[in-house]
Design goal:
Structural class: alpha+beta
Largest sheet: 6 strands, mixed
Shape: globular
Strand content: 15-25%
Number of strands: 6
Order of helices and strands: EEEHEEEHHH
Number of domains: 1
Radius of gyration: 16 Å
């Protein structure tokens, strides 16, 4: 049986199911991460070209359920990998909840994510690992832009 897909923003996403929260019905969609997405997402060229100037606007909502903050866009719950979820929350915390200075951009958030990866691993990343992960986060930013949760 083929999986059901629905268009969210510019991407066709697989429907994982439906859920009712506080009387509202939401469709849960699986958002691919950089490993799952084949090729480059449509917004990749934009993200790559504007890495040092782009200040994303968070267009979704965060639904707080216990300790969790669940990303919602319209009537869709975005099912993200843990890494991508943490990245989206970092974007939210910097650009929506915080008051970043004018020099803060998506690259600043990616660098903070890389520093957190190093902290968790207990070692510095090699320059190649840092470059690979920087590109990975850039691809994930493009995916989030294409879904429409950030613009």
């Amino acid at each position: 049986m083929d999986s059901v897909k629905v268009k969210v923003g510019n991407l066709e996403l697989e429907v994982a199911g439906k859920i009712n929260i506080e009387g509202e019905e939401y469709t849960v969609v699986n958002v691919p991460d950089a490993d799952e997405y084949r090729g480059f997402p449509p917004s990749w060229e934009f993200v790559k070209s504007h890495m040092l100037t782009w200040r994303p606007y968070f267009r979704g909502k965060l639904l707080e359920v216990g300790e969790d903050r669940i990303p919602i866009l319209d009537k869709f719950i975005l099912n993200l990998t843990e890494e991508m979820h943490n990245f989206l929350l970092a974007i939210y915390d910097v650009f929506k909840a915080g008051r970043p200075n004018v020099e803060t951009n998506i690259s600043t958030v990616i660098t903070a994510q890389l520093n957190e990866v190093e902290r968790k691993k207990g070692r510095s990343l090699t320059s190649q690992e840092r470059t690979d992960m920087y590109v990975r986060y850039g691809i994930e930013a493009a995916i989030l832009k294409d879904v429409g949760v950030i613009s």
